[in-house]
Amino acid sequence: xxxxxxxxxLALGLLVCFVAKTVWAGxxxxxQKASGSGQSVILDTxxxxxxxxxxxxxxxxxxxxxxxxxxxxxxxxxxxxxxCSFAPTTIAGCTIDSTTHGCEFHIVGGAQxxxxxxxxxxxFYKLTDGTACINFTSGLPxxxxxxxxTATVLGGTGGFAGVTGSVTTDSHGQILVSDGVDxxxxxxxxxxxxxxxxxxxxEGEDLQN
Length: 209
What we know:
- The protein has an eight-stranded antiparallel beta barrel with strand order 1-2-3-5-6-7-8-9.
- It has one domain.
- The protein has 209 residues and is mainly beta.
């Protein structure tokens, strides 16, 4: 009986040792809201040498892991089709406000960097898809929506070092001033991050903001 107990204790000790050395990847879902402003910049984010205008945005907000700031850039190309108010035979129309003659654009490139206010830790990610609809049927300001924006997480710093995952975002706002080429706008956005960390992810509260 004593030898059985010794064997059991040895086996238990080996198991504890093994478990202690095993590092399990953590997961984290971030729900956040942000608001800010953006302006046109000369940058060809998708490298196709067709359009060289992108939107550079700065925002701040709250999330279930604390306050944050966000800075990013994205490029959109018009979607071929019919129905857009200012280019009815070449750009696809979309529904926004009370009109079906909004103008549809596709997000073709861009990246964003999220900074946690408390720790300074960063998450950076690359935009992969999304649709924009702008209402040009009346004068300024022009209403717009961005829906189905998706992104792939490229990594991070501090507690987010080596993080992977995905981001989804929807936003809306208004173009306040425009000269037909460049513009300035405000926006509000909601996002969800689904992250996998190589170790333990920074803790978040079990709530949605």
